[in-house]
Amino acid sequence: MAVRVSFKVNGKSVSSEVEERTLLVSLIRDTLRLTGTHVGCDTAQCGACTVMMNGRAVKSCSMLAMQAEGAEITTIEGVAKPDGTLHPMQAAFKEHHGLQCGFCTPGMVINAIDFAKGNPNPTEQDVREALEGNLCRCTGYHNIVKSIMAGAKAMAAAK
Amino acid sequence: MHPFIYHRPANVNDAVTLAAKGPDHKLLAGGQSLVQAMKLRLSSPSDVIDLGSIKDLSGIKASGSEVTIGAMTRHAEVEKSPEVRKAIPALAALAGQIGDRQVRAMGTLGGALANNDPAADYPAAVLGLGATIVTNKRRIPADEFFKGLFETALAQGELITSVVFPVPKRAAYTKFKNQASRFAIVGVFVAESSSGVRVAVTGAGPCVFRQKDMEKALAAKFSPESVAGVKQAASGLNSDLHAGAEYRAHLVTVMAKRAVENALK
Questions:
Q1: A31, A55, A78: which is the final residue of a domain?
Q2: Residues A49, A18 share a domain
Q3: Exposure of A122 in the CB half-sphere (CA atoms within 13 A)
Q4: Residues paired with B191 in a beta bridge
Q5: What does the CA dihedral A37, A20, A56, B31 come to, rounded to 10 degrees?
Q6: Is the pLDDT score of A139 beyond 90?
Q7: Is the pLDDT of residue A1 over 80?
Q8: CATH topology of domain B170-264
Q9: Residue at A66 is within a domain
Q10: Cα separation of B188 and B173, whole Å?
Q11: pLDDT (tens digit, 0 to 9) for every residue of chain B, 265 residues total?
Q12: Out of A42, A62, A132, whose CB is closest to B182?
């Protein structure tokens, strides 16, 4: 059976017929073709599927698409300005080389933006704790932590 | 994931009417355990009843002597709530240690209690504080709620609506966490209130339990030294690839001692 789910993605209203068991991440990637959101572990460990729902970072592999009814979703594609200007957090990842292969990066950036909203000047320890739900398997976390500390300050300064 | 029929009831009555139809009708709160269990086909409900649209199941109310938290209140809301931080800081701190921040943005108090995972954090606070679980049918004292491995006193078609936490004089929760999952290998919640001292242990056994020898020792004198010499028996505790029963038993004393230290800070 199919059910209809309607929500906003990156500011645009979408409405889609899905099977009840469709995960939010499947809808985002396979139907909406927003493939910046990744599926890493598919078991809620790695955080590559992190998207913003109503302003909070959540794991889109751990929820049904139907749970997003009426929500405002932001994926990595909706983070930069329409003219291509990077979000301050994205710019910080670029500046501090906070990525290597890039697979975990969309989830890292989305989670970091949500975290930085409430933590404009975080300590290294704060950032490492905030990254408990995001795994990187190539760089280690050193530059990611540096990026988020800088990105949080840049976001606060840009307000 | 096996197919199922999805329902989104607008109120508690409709939700429990659906849930009463049978054990294959599952209530979906935040979904942080259920959705993963369904993906692994450990759970294959015929019907999923999403509680996400029932607004009056969420929220936090504090009076002088108790804090009432709606069943659908997210861990992140409890963690950040000024009311909870002021009245029962140990409860806010516990909520902030569940899973990771993305999981805390979705996971709910009621979902965690109804699931009763043996390594979950919230059962320790509920049992340690002597909270009351309020359902659509009755009020269940914490001492009668947790029945065993993933088993509670909830009947089919019974829904947790809120939990009432009495405000203690002092309390703290200390856990030795699994580094990968952040679940408790052993977590100990201690609370001292006018009605006495309670010590609740999660992660160690198949279900959260009270450590009454430690409660007696702490009632005589609420200090870390009082529990330092109280040993937990290893028989009946969990043994798995993360920790053996003997090690878990040892950790109960260590975590209890640290929890008392933290409660006195």
A1: A78
A2: yes
A3: 26
A4: B171, B198
A5: -110
A6: no
A7: no
A8: Enolase-like; domain 1 (3.30.390)
A9: yes
A10: 6
A11: 999 999 999 999 999 999 999 899 999 999 999 999 999 999 999 999 999 999 999 999 999 899 999 999 999 999 999 999 999 999 999 999 999 999 999 999 999 999 999 999 999 999 999 999 999 999 999 999 999 999 999 999 999 999 999 999 999 999 999 988 889 999 999 999 999 999 999 999 999 999 999 999 999 999 999 999 999 999 999 999 999 999 999 999 999 999 999 999 9
A12: A132
Distances (CA, A) of B47 to A148, B19, B145: 42, 9, 25
Sheet containing A56-59: order of strands: A12-19, A2-9, A72-74, A50-53, A56-59
Domain range for A74 = 2-78
What are the extents of the domains in chain B? 5-166, 170-264
With left for phi above 0 and alpha for psi between -120 and 50, is residue A104 left, alpha or beta? alpha
First to last CA, chain A: 46
Q: At A124, phi and psi to the nearest 5?
A: -60, -40
The identity of residue A155, as a single letter, is M
Rounded to 5 degrees, φ, ψ at B226 are -60, -35
Tally of domains within chain A: 2
Q: Does B109 touch chain A (CB under 8 A)?
A: no
Q: Which residue of B has its CA nearest to A24?
A: B35
Type of residue found at B16: V
Name the token pair of B231. 């040993």
Q: Is residue B37 less than 8 Å (CB to CB) from chain A?
A: no
Picking from A60, A62, A66 by the largest number of B CB atoms within 10 A of its own CB, the best residue to mutate is A62
Question: How does strand B25-28 pair with strand B47-50?
Answer: parallel
Instruction: Choose the final residue of a domain: A44, A78, A112.
Output: A78
- Residue B180: the pLDDT is 85
Q: Which CATH class is domain B5-166?
A: alpha beta
